[in-house]
Fold TetR/AcrR family transcriptional regulator.
Amino acid sequence: MGETEQRLVAAAERLFAEHGVGAVSLRTVMQAAGTNVAAIHYHFGSKEGLLDAVLRSRLDQVAAERQAALPAVDVTVADLAHAFVRPVVAVLEAGGEHWIRLVGRLLATGDDGLATLSESFLRRNAAFVALLERLSPGVPRRTLNFRLTQAMHLTLTVLGDIDRTRRLQASDATTEEVVADLADVVTSVLAGPPTARST
């Protein structure tokens, strides 16, 4: 991706996260990126193309890190939860807080881009889903997909604004402590009710 494209993606990521996709004009993105009027149409074709580029800019990173975090043998639901949460933490540490907030916003509001996100999530995380199915014998795929969606929403909500999480709890927990607590809750979400747990 060239320098102009990177500036447009970074500006759009921040503006879409702060105001919502529908509330941000292409002209606003271009001004924030310091580009000319034709730049978005030249590089991305449309606002939808720009949003797609913003979403995909970090999805490959998350999916690759999630796959790498999965143990080769003896996987538990707790392993899956850590492999689910840690790649999003890596995005946060790489300066991707706006991306996390944007994706969380899309999940919460059903705004433009949700279809791209849903399709991409299941495709890029096929190995993860297969392991969860193996650890959840007899649980319908619909239920597993629901658990995954809720785990993703929770992870993005917490990591998209850790300071808010601290304020809600009147806590001075470190980021690592928040992440550890989050991984515990995601483990419970993925495992389902105690009677359904096999690990």
About this structure: The chain has a mean pLDDT of 86.
